[in-house]
């Protein structure tokens, strides 16, 4: 298998090239599901003088992004991606053993957690490792941490700061619950990961005290102000979609959450009928009645409803637009096609007439997709869709 | 008749007598006497600023005022300026009237042009209204401070954080520096100090023994005496000031912590300089605001101290009941294990489901494993599951065959229930051990043979590397319910990379918006996991179930996977 160059520009010599080569070799070991081999590549890089943070963020996390790309391109299955992630988690542990983080410097204690429902624990695990290398006393709470568990941790351990990670914008309502738990104890929350938007605007909307796009900038922000808050003081300069969720947002999001299964089933049935018509022309209804919609389709429609709910929650139609555009950029066999996405938006708007903001967003998203079929660079949302499938 | 407000006030120079017949008004006009009776000081100035008339209250308010002279001689600068500038209104703070009761006076004035060359000024003493408004604002401010302090203090149960919060909130509102000492049991006293110039409170611990030199502080922290002024004097000697001189004027405030702990709050600097004059007069000792704050701090410290004790208790209990870590495959013919657990109560790490892998106790013994489910949820169920596991540990010393072990366990659980006078509390479980060799023989082909016995539990599933899923045909009655129980045992051969999955009914009975998850979905999900490493398989199952649940309530969910190593002798 050829190593995929991924997001980084091609470099043929120098330390960057060495890192790129190591990342390629590492990705090959992931592709072969070879845990000892992957550990050997990472430890070899450490022994060759590459620092641990580079190994963790540029080799391991870099290769994991390549894995995500391969999944999105339909080259890898969900299970393959799971195995790769599992191996990378073992590698992170091996790196931590081989090049242990120094003792905490006294800068403070930080709890690192993934949002409830966020099963991609590796980015947060990497953040925990990086922060411990910046002198923090780190507690890693794991993937998908329920708010109740976080509350218990806050009362038992009293960390100075909570860092939450998520790649899924559809988890923003869960982020809000987590932030509320932290607020109640006066603990500042630093949000991280693509879930909070490319510029972190949704981190504000859920009430976080700051946002960092990646582990390195999170470490820098925390070092600059160990007690928070980290948003630049730009009060008075309103940012679109960057205000706390209001009551209407919560109500409409709750409606969407409660009706999720019903909405998915209704839209899936309609789309399946359309597919059957398209494939065979008019058919005997009895022929299609027993055919359950494919899982890929109901998964995508479930994501659509979740993203709609998140968009309504943070009052930002752009969140839904980005997801719908992204659907058009990836081809999942039997998944939602761009044309079907438009159909789904129309049908949902009909089903959700009673929720004014929801209906408005659906209409806007439909107009937006009709205007352009060019897939936007919605990388954040893309990673999210991949993440939620795996 | 003398109508002046302060008749006894000494004057620099006597005012001209104010007699109606001397007043430069038209004959028969009673205005002079009318003006003498109003509350406002009234004076009329001409264009040059010379006072042409003044009523009695004006002379009382401004004793130096002379009719016929410039207003300047009244020695009231703001008034002089206002008159010459032709202002419409003014506010003046006057020093206390000599010899008169009350403090500084606040005067509010306004002017009105009554003729081309005459402006009339009305000055009113508004000191009382002003004081009332000030004290109302101060009371509101105190109430707001206390309410915000209460919110900040009661939101957190972590003891050290609470201790830090207690001093952080006190500065600068109540003092220039604040120190709190807390004895929450044990041999040490925790302390935290906040200074106005440092954003983060400093914290530390002192051994109780170090307090011998400060008997009054020690007594207060052991609950043997009140935090009295003597304690405040001793405090300077304690090593809690970070090298700085705490100065004089330390105020030791007893913090009522209701017996759970003992605490003393110490405020540096004279709080009277900082605290607004509250309802409590200074000679009453500690200002009311400080006492109120200390009482809120005490409640928060009591809750935090109690929580720390309880959470330590819960933590130790949970640690002893939580599934022990799985043995890491040592390679060769050793089996590989994976597990995942999601308790019903999300704040807990334990529940009624349990699993365990027991490495061989002796070199010739086998590795045993089990997964089970006791009735109930939460900590009560977890305690019962602990009893089941401990019984198994002991019984395993005398019996290794899984079915015979279940028979013994059944008897042991019934006997224990009888001994404690409890109703029998049953469990379901799968119990097995691992023999090297896929044919159940002496190994060599890289596979494994499992001996599996069940009591009332969902049958295990075997996932082959090609994704085929087999249901292991083995049944049995509940464990610990009936003396006449019957359990079955079977053998399962695993080829390299094959996986045997034990799970609790929390998986299949997980109820999401679309109904129960069910065995069909479970088997379909496992079908995509052929050859997948055991830990990944378990995590994936729990993730799929969680997505199915979509945030809904669920029972305990546990999965344990036993996997034969690959032909290379590694875990998949």
Describe the structure concisely:
The complex is a heterodimer of chains A (390) and B (572). Chain A has 390 residues and is of the alpha/beta class.
Describe this structure in words.
The complex is a heterodimer of chains A (390) and B (572). Helices cover 60% and strands 6% of the residues of chain A. Chain A is built from 17 helices and 5 strands. In chain A, strands 2-1-3-4-5 form a 5-stranded parallel β-sheet, sandwiched between helices. Chain A starts with 13 loop residues before the first helix and ends with a helix. Chain B has 572 residues and is α+β, with helices and mostly antiparallel strands. Chain B starts with 30 loop residues before the first helix and ends in a 9-residue tail after the last strand. Chain B has helices spanning 31-36, 56-61, 77-85, 127-154, 159-170, 215-221, 229-235, 271-274, 288-321, 378-395, 402-419, 505-508, 518-527, 534-549, and strands spanning 41-46, 51-54, 89-94, 105-115, 118-125, 177-183, 188-195, 202-207, 251-255, 262-268, 336-342, 353-358, 367-374, 427-436, 448-455, 461-463, 469-471, 488-494, 499-503, 511-512, 515-516, 557-563. Mean pLDDT of chain B is 83; it is low at 1-15 and 271-284. In chain B, a hairpin with a 5-residue loop joins strand 16 and strand 17.
Specify Rg of chain B, calculated over alpha carbons: 43 Å
Oligomer: heterodimer
Please outline the major beta sheet of chain A: 5 strands, parallel
Q: Can you count the beta strands of chain A? A: 5
Largest interface: A-B, 33 and 34 residues
Order of SSEs of chain A: HHHHEHEHEHEHEHHHHHHHHH
Report the β-strand fraction of chain B as a percent range.
15-25%
Instruction: Estimate what percentage of residues of chain A fall within beta strands.
Output: 5-15%
- Report, as a whole number of angstroms, the end-to-end distance of chain B: 112 Å
User: Strand sequence of the main sheet of chain B, in spatial order?
Assistant: 2-1-5-4-3
Overall, the morphology of chain A is: globular
Helix- and strand-based class of chain B? alpha+beta
Uncertain parts of chain A = 1-10, 235-242, 285-289, 373-390
In the predicted model, the low-confidence regions of chain B spanning at least 5 consecutive residues are 1-15, 271-284
* Annotation, overall tally of beta strands of chain B: 22
**Percent of residues of chain B in helical segments?**
25-40%
Query: What is the CA-based Rg of chain A, rounded?
Result: 22 Å
């Amino acid at each position: 298998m050829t190593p995929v160059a991924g997001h980084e520009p091609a470099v043929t010599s120098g330390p960057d090239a060495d890192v790129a080569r190591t990342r390629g070799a590492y990705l090959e070991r992931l592709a072969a599901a070879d845990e000892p081999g992957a550990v050997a590549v990472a430890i070899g890089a450490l022994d060759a003088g590459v620092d641990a943070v580079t190994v963790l963020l540029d080799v391991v996390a870099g290769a994991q992004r390549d894995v995500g790309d391969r999944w999105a391109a339909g080259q890898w299955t969900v299970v393959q991606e799971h195995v790769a992630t599992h191996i990378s988690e073992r590698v992170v542990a091996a790196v931590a053993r081989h090049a242990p983080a120094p003792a905490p410097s006294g800068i403070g204690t930080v709890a690192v957690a993934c949002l409830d429902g966020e099963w991609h624990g590796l980015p947060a695990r990497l953040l925990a490792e990086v922060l411990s290398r910046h002198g923090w006393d780190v507690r890693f709470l794991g993937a998908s941490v329920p708010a109740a568990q976080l509350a218990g941790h806050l009362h038992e351990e009293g960390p100075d700061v909570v860092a939450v990670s998520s790649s899924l914008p559809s988890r923003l309502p869960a982020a809000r619950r987590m932030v509320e738990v932290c607020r109640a104890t006066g603990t500042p929350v630093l949000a991280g990961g693509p879930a909070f938007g490319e510029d972190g605007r949704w981190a504000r909307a859920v009430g976080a005290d700051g946002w960092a796009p990646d582990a390195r900038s999170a470490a820098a922000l925390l070092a600059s102000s160990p007690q928070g808050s980290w948003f630049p003081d730009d009060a008075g300069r309103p940012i679109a979609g960057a205000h706390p969720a209001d009551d209407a947002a919560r109500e409409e999001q709750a409606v969407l959450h409660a009706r999720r299964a019903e909405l998915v089933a209704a839209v899936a049935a309609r789309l399946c009928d359309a597919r059957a018509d398209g494939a065979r022309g008019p058919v005997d209804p009895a022929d299609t009645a027993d055919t359950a919609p494919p899982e890929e389709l109901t998964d995508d429609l479930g994501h659509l409803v979740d993203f709609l709910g998140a968009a309504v929650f943070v009052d930002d139609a752009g969140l839904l637009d980005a997801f719908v555009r992204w659907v058009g950029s990836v081809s999942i066999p039997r998944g939602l096609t761009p044309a079907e996405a438009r159909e789904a938006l129309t049908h949902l708007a009909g089903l959700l007439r009673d929720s004014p903001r929801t209906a408005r967003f659906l209409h806007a998203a439909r107009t937006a997709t009709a205007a352009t079929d060019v897939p936007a660079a919605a990388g954040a949302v893309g990673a999210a869709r991949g993440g939620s499938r795996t | 008749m003398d109508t002046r407000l302060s008749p006894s006030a000494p004057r620099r120079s006597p005012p001209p007598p104010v007699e109606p017949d001397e007043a430069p008004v038209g004959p028969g006009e009673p205005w002079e006497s009318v003006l003498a009776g109003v509350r406002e000081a009234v004076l009329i100035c001409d264009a040059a600023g010379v006072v042409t008339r003044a009523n009695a209250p004006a002379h009382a308010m401004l004793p130096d005022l002379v009719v016929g002279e410039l207003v300047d001689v009244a020695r009231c600068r703001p008034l002089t300026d206002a008159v010459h500038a032709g202002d419409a209104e003014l506010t003046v703070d006057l020093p206390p009237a000599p010899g008169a009761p009350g403090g500084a006076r606040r005067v509010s004035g306004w002017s009105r042009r009554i003729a081309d060359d005459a402006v009339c000024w009305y000055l009113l003493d508004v000191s009382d209204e002003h004081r009332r408004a000030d004290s109302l604002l101060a009371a509101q401010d105190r109430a707001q401070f206390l309410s915000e302090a209460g919110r900040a203090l009661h939101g957190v149960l972590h003891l050290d954080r609470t201790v830090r919060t207690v001093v952080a909130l006190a500065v600068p509102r109540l003092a220039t520096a604040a120190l709190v000492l807390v004895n929450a049991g044990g041999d040490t006293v925790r302390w935290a100090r906040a200074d106005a110039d440092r954003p983060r409170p400093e914290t530390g611990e002192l051994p109780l023994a170090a307090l011998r030199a400060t008997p009054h502080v020690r007594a207060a922290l052991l609950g043997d005496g009140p935090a009295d002024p003597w304690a405040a004097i001793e405090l300077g000697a304690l090593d809690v000031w970070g090298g700085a001189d705490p100065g004089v004027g330390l105020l030791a405030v007893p913090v009522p912590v209701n017996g759970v702990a003992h605490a003393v709050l110490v405020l540096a600097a004279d709080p009277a300089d900082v605290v607004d004059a509250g309802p409590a007069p200074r000679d009453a000792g500690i200002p009311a605001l400080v006492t109120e704050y200390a009482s809120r701090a005490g409640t928060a410290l009591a809750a935090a101290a109690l929580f720390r004790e309880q959470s330590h208790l819960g933590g130790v209990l949970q640690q002893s009941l939580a599934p022990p870590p799985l043995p890491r495959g040592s390679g060769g013919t050793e089996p590989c294990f994976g597990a995942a657990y999601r308790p019903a109560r999300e704040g807990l790490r334990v529940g009624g489901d349990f699993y365990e892998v027991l490495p061989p106790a002796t070199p010739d013994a086998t590795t045993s494993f089990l997964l089970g489910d006791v009735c109930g949820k939460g900590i009560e169920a977890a305690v019962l599951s602990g009893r089941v596991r401990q019984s198994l540990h002991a019984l395993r010393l005398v019996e290794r065959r899984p079915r015979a072990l279940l028979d013994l366990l059944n008897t042991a659980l019934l006997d224990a229930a009888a001994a404690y006078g409890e109703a029998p509390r049953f469990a379901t479980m799968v119990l097995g051990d691992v023999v090297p060799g896929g044919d159940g023989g002496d190994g060599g082909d890289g596979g494994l043979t499992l001996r599996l016995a069940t009591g009332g539990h969902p049958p295990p599933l075997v996932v082959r590397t090609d994704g085929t899923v087999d249901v292991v045909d083995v049944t049995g009655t509940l464990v610990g319910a009936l003396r006449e129980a019957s359990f079955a045992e079977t053998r399962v051969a695993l080829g390299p990379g094959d996986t045997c999955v034990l799970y609790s009914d929390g998986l299949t009975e997980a109820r999401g918006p679309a109904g129960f998850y069910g065995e069909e979905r479970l088997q379909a999900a496992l079908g995509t996991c052929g050859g997948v490493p055991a830990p990944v398989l378990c995590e994936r199952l729990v993730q799929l179930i969680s997505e199915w649940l979509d945030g809904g309530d669920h029972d305990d969910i546990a999965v344990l996977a036993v996997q034969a190593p690959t032909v290379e002798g590694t875990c998949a």
